[in-house]
Amino acid sequence: MARMTAARALVETLRAQGVDTIFGIISSHTMEIFDALYDHQDAIRFISTRHEQAAAMMADGYARVTGKPGVCLTSTGPGAANSMGGLGEAYDASSPVLTITSSAEEQLYERGLGTMHETKDQMGMLSTVTQHSVHIGRAQETPARVQEAFGLFCSRRPRPIAIEMPADVQGQEAEMTIPGPVQHPAPSADAAAVEEAAELLLAGKRVGVLAGTGVHRSGAGQALTRLVERLGAPVFTTAGGKGAIAEDHELSLGMYGGEYNFPPGGLEDPRQTFANSLDVLLVAGSSLSYFRAKSQGLRQPPQLIHLDIDAEPMDKWYTAAVRLVGDAKTVLEQLNAAVAERADSGQSASGKEAGFAGEVGEVRERIRAYKRKTMPNETEIMEAIRGAVSRDAIFVGDVGICNHRGANYCLEIYGQRSYLSPAWGGLGFGFPAAAGAKAGFPDRQVICITGDGGFQFNIQELGTCVQYGLRPVILVFNDDAWGLLRHYQKSRGNGRYIASDLRNPDFARLAETYGAWGAQARSLPELVQALERALEADTAAVIDVKTPEGFANFR
């Protein structure tokens, strides 16, 4: 044991858990924590953002691409409140974000005495966007509370966790021991349930897979690919699951469904038709929410195998024949072993319908044709962007028509944790999440695809990127409007436009004033040329892509 302040214990415990990056803003209520960080600058990089929402979103982006918890540090009151939008997104996406905030001195805590930044029930506020929230009232509690948070990230659905430490407690001293890194085995599924699932997968005539965010969260891409290759089972993904299997793999059928009440065209969707023809469906790492499944026309499969980190989302909209509760990678490895054991004993996928493998190839072609028919320009734009970047590039989307009718459907992703899409649906996620992804992988290309409205939610973080050498490329599809809502007003409201126009700055010139690289593109060839140059820039890059006739008409 050693005598130290709570702030020092906090920082040293974070370091012991492998934290190397923290996003946030310094505050008068966190001075002790920053003083402790001063002595650990060789191991923990602090990235000072311009807004706490962006700090939470950067921590989220960092977490999603690295698979490690992201950490953000905010002030009490307004600072903690500002982070709520980012934490809500991380909660809905099951992203492991640890948010650390302060509060008034312990003797003034929640007494309504009018102290600076006082908040009515700050823990209650944070509890709405976290799975667990704790108040540290004594210095000696600090190491255990931090270790507990990292243990929860490993053992259950890794949603955000909040730790609140009053300003005076941060400076209090106590005898404390810094615990080592959490060693918590990923939870496996019940062995009997695994055997039952393997039997169904091998006996099924028409077997398919729907892969979600949980495959990325647990790093299960290779385990999933091995399993579906053994079974000859095609794979759909959710938007958050894109890249769970490389989308140029012969068994990949791309993203299933779309956005709620936002079909890509008036033709029959071959993905929906084929998915509803399957007799056995393995859902891996998806909660099968109304938004992603039921509203997209997915019917109850005759035999549903539902794999998820916890049982909470199971049997809400669809009844599972087998429930596999556990970590996706661990359980998929269990299934691989069970299927391989049966193959070694002579049992194979003998129930497979004749011609099924050929049909999968035909469906892939029908899906391509469907996209080219219903979204021709969107497909061409995304193919051009894809062709200009490396295979392992990380793409980060925002809420906007360029993603709903572009990247989600038409952009191919080839590796796990390479596509970040907002789950909660809040604008402004794309750019800060891309900056966080770049902090996690500085040597990989990171491309943000956003609209002019969403970009301006966190445009100030260009200063953060330049200051800390973060170099994402931001493609701003600029139609001087809330484009998605304007599309709705045109398609559903008979052109009764109101509140959907925007007056925007020159984004390229604005980027340059921050010290970033900026360019404009008014055609697809100009976009590709600018993107190639942006990828070589030695700073963050913004390409203002002019789409005055809307994204779908950009050429």
Characterize this entry briefly:
The protein has 555 residues and is α/β, with parallel strands linked by helices.
How would you sum up this structure, described in words?
This protein has 555 residues and is α/β, with parallel strands linked by helices. It folds into three domains: 2-176, Thiamin diphosphate (ThDP)-binding fold, Pyr/PP domains (Rossmann fold, 3-Layer(aba) Sandwich); 191-365, Rossmann fold (3-Layer(aba) Sandwich), CATH 3.40.50.1220; 375-553, 3-Layer(aba) Sandwich (Rossmann fold), CATH 3.40.50.970. The protein is built from 22 helices and 20 strands. The strands form four sheets. A six-stranded parallel β-sheet has the order 3-2-4-5-7-6, sandwiched between helices. A six-stranded parallel β-sheet has the order 11-10-9-12-13-14. Strand 19 (517-521), helix 22 and strand 20 form a beta-alpha-beta unit. Helix 15 (376-388) crosses helix 16. It starts with a strand and ends in a 9-residue tail after the last strand. The mean pLDDT is 93.
